[in-house]
Amino acid sequence: MEKLREKLIEGSFRLRTALDSERGQGMVEYALILFLISIGAVLFLTAIGFDIQEVFDEVENALGIDDGEVPAAEGDDDNPAPGAAAP
Question: How confident is the model over 50-76, as a mean pLDDT?
Fold first, then answer.
């Protein structure tokens, strides 16, 4: 019986010291800071994304490109455009 009592006292002492320990506090603070920064970044990029989409829409309108219509790329490549004369 005495041995059980000693084990319970020792276990409660270990539990109390573990709960009083602040070893993981710094890690939790860094995790919270990282979480807040990531939320801010998502909100910022979402807001900027709409502005960037408006800029691209204005460029498309200025070039006379309708939605879904992409002009063919021209340049020095190995695959000439259909109907173009071969070099």
Answer: 77
For residue 6 the two structure tokens come to 């000693």
Distance CA 7, CA 38 (A): 46
On whether the CB atoms of residues 65 and 71 are closer than 8 A, the answer is yes
Secondary structure in 3-state letters for the chain: CHHHHHHHHHHHHHHHHHHHCCCCHHHHHHHHHHHHHHHHHHHHHHHHHHHHHHHHHHHHHHHCCCCCCCCCCCCCCCCCCCCCCCC
The C-alpha R_g of the chain, in whole angstroms, comes to: 33
pLDDT category, 74, cuts 50, 70, 90?
low
